[in-house]
């Protein structure tokens, strides 16, 4: 898991795909500028807008992916995201190969509060509990980039 601000994107030049995604995200000025499943790199990287009202942690559940890593980039509002090693959690809904997602329960290893300009990279080993509120529920607008994981 990586938590940082987009202004520090130059630190990730050695991670080519992550760096390309961060450069793409930095160019977006409005959340509604991109359409769902916008292709950034053919066959390996796409992005889409996500909007929701944040909620209490007890209403949220961990998710994890095997085929793609996620980059969550906040444009409006604040979102707390908890993370844990997927192997330390209990399966709530088994992994779906077709949807590339499984759902889990268990304790967090930690959490980060993301504000506009912040991003979090979640690798396949990082289960992530998204959409958690900070103090009170609020509208959050973010872009999620999916990067295909090399096998």
What key phrases describe this protein's structure?
151 residues, mainly beta, Jelly Rolls, six-stranded antiparallel sheet, 50% strand, globular, NanQ/TabA/YiaL_sf
Spell out the blueprint of helices and strands.
Elements: E1 2-5, H1 16-27, E2 38-41, E3 45-53, E4 62-64, E5 68-76, E6 79-85, E7 90-96, E8 101-105, E9 110-114, E10 118-122, E11 126-132, E12 139-148
Q: State the domain count.
A: 1
Beta-strand content estimate:
over 45%
- N-to-C span: 18 Å
Look at the structure and name the CATH superfamily.
Answer: YhcH/YjgK/YiaL
Shape: globular
Fill in the CATH topology.
Jelly Rolls
| CATH structural class | Mainly Beta
Element-by-element helix/strand order: EHEEEEEEEEEEE
Tell me about the largest β-sheet. Answer: 6 strands, antiparallel
Q: Total number of β-strand segments?
A: 12
- Share in helix: under 10%
Number of helices: 1
Rg, rounded, reads 15 Å
Structural class: mainly beta
Mean pLDDT: 96
Strand order of the largest sheet: 1-10-5-12-3-2
pLDDT below 50 for ≥5 consecutive residues: which ranges?
A: none
Protein name: DUF386 domain-containing protein
Pfam family, one: DUF386
Organism: Schaedlerella arabinosiphila
InterPro entries: NanQ/TabA/YiaL, NanQ/TabA/YiaL_sf
